[in-house]
Design goal:
The protein is mainly beta. Strands 6-8-9-10-11-14-16-17-18-19-20-21 form a 12-stranded antiparallel beta barrel. The radius of gyration is 34 Å and the shape is elongated. The N terminus is likely disordered.
Length: 420
């Protein structure tokens, strides 16, 4: 026969005594729970001597035990807000209860818990907002389908050589983008590759990380398709041209970042990356850095027949291969038109230095570099769904004693998606 198993648990019982024109005192009483020697009792018995209490404290007595939850585990009674299984991160995720800053969540490993701790530290120190001006919708992620259309343009020449202006047609791309927390990634492909069966000669890759205080973006463009010559200054009667040119191969890699001064009241991504909700119109000064690597090869033996005889350039091909580093400064503003629409306009010029690599046609000494970034965006939101349009122009220029060279990338996006 098993021995007698006994346990005594101290319970705090809130006693509310309603008295006329007097304060309500609270008493802590000792109660006991009884267990048999073979089976653990699932019920809790609280003995209160109400006769002696009412004689000492006249009035109505109410014992509030609604907040008391008792859970039987083995041979003991424990007080818990959630069971061990209910604190599991996967359980909370399935029941839409997962909060990254919830200290009671049981993560799959200590490393995962450490990563979550780092994320929460980042949120507290770099992503604090004044909710009167900027407020999130409580959704960590979003998924969107984007019609991504872009074009390149180029200009080069010097005081002794005519300027040539050329550009590509607008490349229609279709992309899918995902964002969760502070990270986002996306990829787009040429529509002719998807529906026409043709191999794409144009690629664009984006990566970004952002928060209230700063925004960092990285881009990669490639183009080896047909470009069109629009202007050739050496021939006056041929300044408005549209001649196909297949002698260009171009690639550009760029990374830039900005610090946002008015970061508590202004959200840089409200209309541009469809993040938080800008509730009141606000703007902010921006300052940052830009680093770019440009490789462009022009084969002048493939010039259109109309230009070959008039070509005054001494070399048959020109290769521009340089890196530039610039300091950026500008301003961005969000206009809140109503609870559904927000419009953004941003201008960030920059100035720096560039140097050509050994295989470039230009001189390898330091040169003056210029950068310009312009952005405009309009966003419509309703509940979880949103529709947005964004226009972006990014230009790099290098001025030297030999040849001035400029390249620009025009990007127009129309997106539709939902937050989750």
């Amino acid at each position: 026969m098993r021995g007698m198993v006994s346990a005594i648990m101290m319970l705090v019982v809130t006693v509310l005594v309603a008295r006329d024109a007097s304060a309500t005192p609270q008493l802590s009483l000792q109660a006991s729970t009884e267990l048999s020697d073979t089976v653990l009792s699932q019920s809790l018995k609280i003995h209160v001597d109400t006769i002696r209490l009412t004689s000492r404290f006249p009035g109505n007595i109410t014992v509030d035990t609604s907040a008391l939850r008792v859970w039987a585990d083995g041979d003991s009674l424990k007080m818990h807000d959630d069971t061990y299984a209910q604190r599991d991160w996967l359980y909370k995720l399935k029941h839409k209860q997962l909060q990254m800053d919830d200290p009671s969540v049981r993560w799959p490993s200590s490393f995962a818990g450490w990563c979550v701790g780092v994320y929460n530290w980042f949120q507290r120190n770099f992503n604090a907002r004044d909710t009167t001006y900027v407020k999130g919708d409580g959704k960590m992620g979003k998924l969107m389908l984007t019609s991504d259309n872009w074009a390149d343009n180029y200009l080069f020449g010097s005081k002794t050589l005519p300027y040539i202006t050329m550009g590509s047609k607008l490349f229609p791309n279709l992309g899918i983008y995902a964002k969760y927390g502070i990270l986002s990634i996306g990829y787009s492909v040429d529509i002719s590759t998807l529906f026409g069966g043709n191999h794409s000669n144009h690629q664009k890759w984006n990566f970004s990380v952002g928060c209230a205080k700063f925004n960092i973006e990285a881009h990669l463009w490639r183009n080896s398709g047909t470009t069109y010559i629009h202007r050739f200054d050496d021939i006056k009667e041929m300044k408005n041209l549209d001649l196909p040119y297949d002698g260009l191969t171009f690639s550009a890699a760029n990374i830039h970042g900005y610090y946002i001064f008015n970061n508590r009241r202004f959200d840089f991504g409200a209309a541009l990356s469809y993040s938080n909700n800008q509730r009141i119109s606000q703007g902010s000064a921006l300052v940052g850095l830009d680093a770019s690597r440009i490789v462009a090869f022009f084969d002048f033996t493939k010039l259109p027949e109309e230009l070959i005889e008039s070509n005054p350039y001494p070399l048959e091909n020109y290769r521009f291969h340089y890196q530039s580093y610039s300091v950026l400064g500008g301003y961005s503003f969000n206009w809140v038109l109503n609870k559904h629409f927000v419009f953004n306009a941003t201008a960030i010029p920059g100035l720096g230095v560039a140097y050509s690599r050994e295989d470039a046609s230009m001189s390898d000494k330091l040169q003056l570099a210029g950068v310009f970034k312009g952005v405009a965006g309009l966003l419509y939101t309703t509940n979880r769904f949103f529709i947005g349009a964004r226009f972006r122009y990014h230009a790099n220029a290098v001025l030297s004693d030999d040849i001035d060279f400029m390249n620009g990338r025009l990007n127009f996006q129309a997106s539709a998606g939902f937050r989750f």
